Each structure stands twice: as C-alpha cells, then as structure tokens.
C-alpha cells in the first residue's frame, strides 16, 4: 500500500514537478521516502528562507 507521502510525490511528478524545496524535519519523512521513487529532485536547505530564495530563483530562470 502506498503511503500519503508517496502518493503526494507521484502526484507532483505527474503534474510536471521536477524539484521539491522543503524545510527539513521529521514531519516530512514519508514525503522524503516517496520523492526518490517518483524521480523528483529533493533540495533541503538549512533555513526556510533559503528554500524560498532557491525555489524563486529556479522558477524565475524557467519562466
């Protein structure tokens, strides 16, 4: 049976998401497990503001 985190990761991949920026912590463990199986790149900075700037920069380069 697929966990909620695995289902979320596969749903994101189906919608064209390639990179996931997150705030590290135990609250994301199930999602971490699903990211690898869905082929998503997981980027986890040391601070939440870093995640925002990194995500914003990557999206700005795409658009």
UniProtKB/TrEMBL annotation:
SUPFAM superfamilies: Thiamin diphosphate-binding fold (THDP-binding). CDD domains: TPP_PYR_POX_like (cd07035). One of its GO terms (cellular component) is acetolactate synthase complex. One of its GO terms (biological process) is L-valine biosynthetic process. Residues 2-57 form the Thiamine pyrophosphate enzyme N-terminal TPP-binding domain. GO terms for molecular function: acetolactate synthase activity; flavin adenine dinucleotide binding; thiamine pyrophosphate binding. Pfam families: TPP_enzyme_N. Belongs to the TPP enzyme family. This is Thiamine pyrophosphate enzyme N-terminal TPP-binding domain-containing protein.
């Amino acid at each position: 049976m697929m966990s909620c985190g695995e289902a979320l990761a596969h749903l994101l991949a189906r919608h064209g998401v390639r990179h996931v920026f997150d705030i590290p912590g135990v609250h994301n463990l199930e999602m971490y497990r699903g990211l690898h199986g869905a082929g998503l790149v997981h980027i986890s900075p040391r601070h939440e503001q870093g995640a925002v700037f990194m995500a914003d920069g990557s999206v700005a380069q795409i658009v």
